[in-house]
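Lecture 7 notes: from sequence to structure.
We start with the chain below.
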Amino acid sequence: MDFPKPVSDASLPPMSTSAATRLSAIESAKRAAAQLAVKEHFDAEARYIGIGSGSTIVYVVEAIKELKDPRIQDILFVPTGYQSRQVILKAGLKDMKFDSLPADTLLEVAFDGADEIDEDLNCIKGGGACLYQEKLVATQASKFICVADHRKLQPRLLTTWPTIPIEVEPLAVTTVISALKTLGSSAPFVREGLIQKAGPIKTDQDNFIVDAPFPSLLLYTDIEQAAKQGVKGLKGQGEDGQWEVQALAKEIKAIEGVLSVGLFVGENGVQAKARGKIAGGQKPIAAYFGMEDGSVAVRMTQDDGTVVLRK
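Predicted C-alpha cells for the same chain:
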C-alpha cells in the first residue's frame, strides 16, 4: 500500500513575523475560551473530571490550577491518552485511568477540544489520534464541554477540516479503505508520522488512523428543509455523495476493523440521562470558541434541545 509522504519540519521555511503573530492570537483565543469554560462548568466539589487531548486542553488545566482551590487536590482527573495524562501530572493533579472508574460511575464533566464543530454541536475529533479514548471519556461524562478557537466554528462538518479520522485495526486497513471508497470517500489514506521511515502513526491502542475525505456533511434539518422546498430524493444516505452526519457515522462504525469514528454525534450526556441511559452521549452540551477579537462565543444546547450561539 502506498502511503502519502509527509513533509519534514527541516524542509519548511522559517515562520514569518505575521504568521507568528497570528499563531500567538490563536493561542490567546484558546486560553480565553478555556478560562470561560472552566468558570462556567468546573465544580471543585466534583469527584471525577475528564481531560481531553490537544493544545487547547493545556489552557483548561491551567485555568483549573489558577483557581487555587485546595479541593482540587481531591479530584481524580481521567485522561484521554498519554499526552493528556502528562498535562495532568505536570500540573500536579491526580490522574486516574478510565478503566479504574467504579462501575456505573459518571464523570461530572469532561473538557476536550475538537477539530471542527457544526451548528448542531456535532464534532470531528481525532486530529491528534486520540479519538477512541476521547469518545470513551465523553460518553461517560454527565456533560461534555468543548473548547476551541474560532477556526473550528463552522456551519457543517467538513467545511474546512478535510477528513474524518477513523481508528482502524492494522490488518483491516486495506478492506476498510475499500469500504470507505464505496461509501463515497474520494481518497482515504493511512496517516503517517512526520518521520516517514517510522511508518504510520500508531494510537495508544496500537492501531492506525485512516483519514477519509467526504463532501460537507448534512444535518437532518437540511433534509427537512429540502423536502419543504420540493427537492425530491435527498435522504442523506450517500446519494450523489451527500451524507447526513449521523447516518455516515453509523455506516463507518459498521465496517469490520473500525474501532472508532471521529464523528461525535447524536445525543449529549444530558439528553442521554433524560432517556434513562447511564451513559452514551457523544456530543458536547456546549462549545466555547475564542474569537479573533478576544471575545468568546458559546454554541450551547438549550433546555428544549435547540442549539443557539451566544456571543
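Points to note: The longest strand covers residues 144-149. Confidence is low (pLDDT under 50) at residues 1-12.
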